[in-house]
Amino acid sequence: MPLLRLTRAAAVSVVMVAAAFAVPLLADGEPLEDGSLPCHPTGAQSRYLVLFAEGTSPEGASHEMTLACGSTVAYYGEIAVGVATSGDPRFAERVGRDRAFSTEAVEAAAGRHGRQAAQVTTGGGDTAEDRSGEQWDMGLIRADAAHAVTAGSRDVLVGVLDSGIDVTHPDLAHAVDASRSAGCVSGKADQSPAAWAPTTSVHGTHVAGIIAAADDGKGITGVAPGVRLASVKVVDDDGTVRPESVVCGLMWAAANGMAVANNSYFVDPWPLTCDRGEERVVFEAVRRAADYATGKGVLTVAAASNESLDLASPSGQTAGPDGQWRKLDSSCRVLPAGLRGVVAVSAVGPDRVKAGYSAYGLGVIDVTAPGGEPSTGRCVLSTVPGGYAQVCGTSMAAPHVSGVAALLASTHPGASPQKLMRLLTSQAESIACPADYDLDGAGGQDAYCSGYAPFNSFYGHGMVDALAAVTP
């Protein structure tokens, strides 16, 4: 069950860099004339996320990162978050481990490089064949009925923060707005087509099809086939979703007038990120970016994850990418779904019951949507390079919600993210907790649902409703 996990970038002053390198280095370990320690690059470059105090200027941020033996990649002054690279393993110590963090450095130290090295796979099927009859998921949220009213407005732009969209797919070629697409893998937006195109993953193309595949009698049809999409690549070729990429993606969405940003992943390097210790750097940076995007009119929608966890009561211990055990507590959340103002989405199968893999949590899950259930062999059909494929996961549930949100943005022009969220939740169809959640028939409960029909830990406010979104 795959779940993938512009502001102006500040350039380092040439004069500043030259001055920095002009300072003579003393003996190893001895301080320089300005009191700092000499740089000792190992040759292996790592990328770092760096927190700054509110109001820090681009020049001030770049100067500090340079003195810490780093090179500035980007600086988002609106939220005082920077991205730097450094070959000196002491970069984080120089800046302060409460302010700098590198997913790459942590994974390299543990001998781990990404979640997986997935190869490009292509789908089958004739793209001229009508396969809408296989889209059980669209019927579940009444998207097919909604299309009789409207397919959505071209004025609405939905950001697909993912692994890239195949713009050559006939179901998606009409939808992707290249002028609003960018690659954010490095932590700095790059608008070249190669930067936002898919390389090793079909995930982003699959998500995009669920949102806006063309309603043309061929292939499949998305929830909101009349809206535009922006391909915002935040997933690295090794399958990792690094926090600096997510910060870049959310800031790009905010700068480019996106009404909705879909996030079908959790932020690495942990399934749950805690607001403490070095993890707080990741937590705080992503929180700042998400809050900023909301303030700029972007509704952020995110998958709850496929970890089968109760997100409202995280407990116990889990191993991090470095192999060290971490104790979970109430400060630990899946990012970005667990943040305030983000629409967190759980997944159901064709039977409208929470999928076994789907995370849940009272007060965390806002709504639910079709994600499919592998045990029944019924996943969600959507676009992939070369055709179509069925995939299961909360990654598939989230774009159904983003599609409905796009329809709401079409029928309520200028609506704030808060209003769109209220409409999503108030129009959702309530689903009561199942009387028996014994998925394997072993006689036990595989998870416990709490709450009541209008709002509970499995389904939040219920199933999103596309027809309600377009009905006056």
From TrEMBL:
Residues 1-27 form the signal peptide. GO terms for molecular function: serine-type endopeptidase activity. The keyword Oxidoreductase does not apply. InterPro entries: Peptidase_S8/S53_dom, Peptidase_S8/S53_dom_sf, Peptidase_S8_Asp-AS, Peptidase_S8_His-AS, Peptidase_S8_Ser-AS, Peptidase_S8_subtilisin-like, Peptidase_S8_subtilisin-rel. Residues 110-132 are annotated as: Disordered. Keywords: Hydrolase, Protease, Serine protease, Signal. Residues 154-461 form the Peptidase S8/S53 domain. Residues 110-119 have a biased composition (Low complexity). Gene3D superfamilies: Peptidase S8/S53 domain. Pfam families: Peptidase_S8. The active site is at D162 (charge relay system), H203 (charge relay system), S395 (charge relay system). One of its GO terms (biological process) is proteolysis. Belongs to the peptidase S8 family. PANTHER family: CEREVISIN-RELATED, PEPTIDASE S8. This is Serine protease. It comes from Actinokineospora globicatena. The gene is aprE.
